Each structure stands twice: as C-alpha cells, then as structure tokens.
C-alpha cells in the first residue's frame, strides 16, 4: 500500500496515539498491581471515630462498585463521541480499554485504608517473599493467558492495525465466534485476579470489601458456555496441527 503525504502523517499520528495508549495502560496496570500487593499497609495507633470509619467504608464501596459499571458507561460515551467526530469503529475498543485501565489510578488515589479492622495479618517467616512471588506469578500467568488468546485483539490494537493496512476495508479477520467468546469470558485471566484479591498478607476491611465486590462482579461477567469451551478446544487443536506440520517443513540448502 502506497501512502500519500496526508496518509503518512495520519499513520504516524495513529502510531504515536496507540503507543501512548499502550504505555499509559501498562503503567496503570503496574501501579494497580503494586496497589493490590498491599505493601503500603501501615496500622494506625490513633483510632478515628466511628463516623470516619463508616465514611471510609462508603467511599471504598462506591469506588469498587462504580468501577464494575464503568465499562458499559465508557463504551457508550466513546461510541457517541466517536460517531460525532467521525472516528472509525475499530478505534473504539482500544480507547475504551485505555480509559478503563487509566481509571484504576482513580481507585488508587481515592482509596481509603481501614487498618483498624483487620481480619488477618500473617507475620510468619518468609511471608513477604511468598506474598511477592505469588502475586508476581499470578500476574505473569494472567498476562500469558491474554497472550495465548490474542492480547492485541483483546486490547483493540489489531483492529486498528488491520484498518490502516487495508485502507479501511476491514477492521478484523477474526470470526464472530471469537468476538462472542471474548464477550462471554468477560475478563481473561479472571481466576488469577480473584486469587490476587484474596491472597493478601494483611487483609484489612477495605481490602476485604474490594475482594468481595470484585469477585462477585468478575464471576457475574463470566458467561461462558459449552459452545465457548468447544470453540477453545477447536482452536487448540488447530494450533497443535499447525505446529505439527510446521515441524515437518524442511528447507533445502541452495545448490
């Protein structure tokens, strides 16, 4: 495909915007993973009044609950603004994901610690190391799950790439069944996120509240059925067959 001067500038602007969005998303996820690790837990010796504790609990409940409804709200806003600005549909998913991940910073900024009410505090030997490696491993596993499914498709990067490569003729080469699978699965690697929420060295009441609300939210978003399981099994079998035949291919040296 040959780009004109205008097309080249548009492509450069798209690359810069996507790169910036990916950077913001990665930083937001890293900051939130640090927040979920609970390394900034400091017990308070000065117990506040009951009213202040209730205020903190209400704020935390509002933040955790509102974030569960944020995907639908952001999707609606992005679609309306995007349609008004004449933005192609293939950009909507990426913008939605970037905004959704960026919103995690608001939870970090406004989250209210409630160390006065603590369910458990594990002070055994090597607890810090076990806690760190457990969280680190779960985040890696969650990332690998998204890579295996197709992280570029989940984030919406691939649709932008296809749109620019094909001059807007197609936004994706994935099947409709794949889109349905992503919609039904809700959050890829959700089981790892649930374990991270509950695997806390110090389970204060605010972390318990976050774990309960988000666990219920994640489980309610997962609507996979037998069709999705069969679809994944077929895709695994296709990849296994492709890898088998790839190993059989040999390249003869030039004579």
Automatic annotation (TrEMBL):
Transmembrane helix in keyword set: yes
Intracellular or extracellular location(s): Nucleus inner membrane
Residue ranges of the TM segments: 12-33, 53-70, 91-112, 132-157, 178-199
InterPro entries in the cross-refs: Nurim-like
GO cellular component entries: nuclear inner membrane
Membrane topology of this protein: Multi-pass membrane protein
The keyword Membrane belongs to this UniProt entry's keyword annotation: yes
Alphabetical UniProt keywords: Membrane, Transmembrane, Transmembrane helix
Chief site of localization: nucleus
UniProt similarity note: Belongs to the nurim family.
Name this protein carries in UniProt: Nuclear envelope membrane protein
Organism field: Sipha flava (yellow sugarcane aphid)
The encoding gene: LOC112684716
């Amino acid at each position: 495909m040959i780009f004109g001067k205008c097309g080249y500038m548009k492509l450069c602007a798209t690359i810069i915007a996507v790169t910036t969005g990916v950077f913001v998303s990665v930083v937001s996820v890293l900051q939130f993973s640090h927040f979920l690790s609970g390394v900034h837990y400091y017990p308070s010796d000065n117990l506040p009044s009951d009213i202040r504790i209730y205020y903190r609990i209400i704020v935390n409940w509002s933040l955790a609950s509102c974030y569960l409804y944020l995907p639908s709200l952001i999707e609606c806003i992005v679609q309306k603004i995007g349609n008004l600005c004449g933005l192609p549909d293939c950009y909507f998913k990426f913008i939605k994901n970037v905004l959704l991940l960026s919103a995690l910073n608001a939870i970090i900024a406004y989250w209210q610690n409630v160390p006065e009410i603590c369910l458990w505090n594990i002070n055994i030997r090597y607890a810090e190391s076990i806690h760190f490696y457990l969280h680190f491993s779960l985040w890696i596993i969650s990332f690998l799950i998204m890579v295996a499914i197709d992280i570029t498709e989940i984030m919406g990067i691939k649709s932008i790439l296809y749109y620019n490569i094909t001059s807007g003729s197609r936004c994706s080469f994935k099947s409709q069944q794949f889109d349905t699978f992503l919609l039904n699965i809700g959050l890829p690697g959700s089981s790892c996120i649930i374990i991270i929420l509950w695997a806390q060295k110090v389970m204060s009441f605010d972390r318990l509240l976050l774990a309960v609300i988000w666990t219920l939210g994640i489980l309610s978003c997962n609507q996979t059925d037998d069709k999705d399981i069969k679809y994944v099994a077929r895709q695994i079998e296709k990849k296994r067959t492709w890898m088998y035949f790839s190993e059989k291919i040999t390249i003869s040296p030039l004579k």
